[in-house]
Design brief:
169 residues; alpha+beta; OB fold (Dihydrolipoamide Acetyltransferase, E2P); 3 helices; elongated; disordered C terminus
């Protein structure tokens, strides 16, 4: 074998090794990718059991918390066009309430509900996740140019609606 052929074979083997390493790395990352979707996106394209981030507003009047020490909550997330029923087992964030923006990490179940493993709520009245704000603008539910704030939060955490709510006194 001539010197030129040996160099060519060495380059081909190195290229094959680098290409294989890159392919394996990309394949490993594909399992860890989590896409943001809105309820309308879920209605069009069901991701199956793949983990996604569902974002939108917690629909008014849909929050149901279990009793007797069971930390399960059921609520619906909407983008104004479609709605998705969500089940979450765990403690909800303190700022979680109806009418507020929320992002839930989880997967669709065969019965059509979204089982969340993590729920994130906005941290103050001026913040909304970028993806949720864009989805609300796209669906026509919120137009920041009009000067109006996003849809308001409900008063679900008042003593009349929630006997465990703290009062001002």
């Amino acid at each position: 074998m001539t010197r030129k052929k040996r160099r060519l074979v060495l380059l081909l083997v190195c290229g094959l090794g680098v290409g294989s390493a890159a392919a394996l790395t990309l394949f490993a990352f594909s399992d860890n990718l989590v896409f943001f979707v809105t309820p309308s996106d879920l209605a069009k394209n069901n991701p199956g059991t793949r983990s996604v981030r569902l974002g939108g507003l917690v629909e008014q009047g849909t929050l149901v918390r279990s009793t007797a020490g069971d930390p399960t909550a059921r609520f619906a997330v909407t983008d104004g066009t479609a709605r998705v029923k969500v089940t979450y087992r765990g403690l909800l964030p303190d700022l979680f309430r109806e009418g507020q923006g929320v992002v839930a990490l989880g997967a669709m179940q065969p019965d059509g509900t979204f089982k969340a493993s993590e729920v994130l709520a906005k941290h103050d009245e001026n913040y909304m996740p970028k993806e949720v704000a864009e989805a609300l603008k796209k669906s026509g539910q919120w137009n920041p140019a009009s000067g109006a704030a996003p849809p308001p939060a409900s008063t679900w955490n008042t003593p009349a609606n929630n006997p465990t709510a703290k009062t001002g006194s």
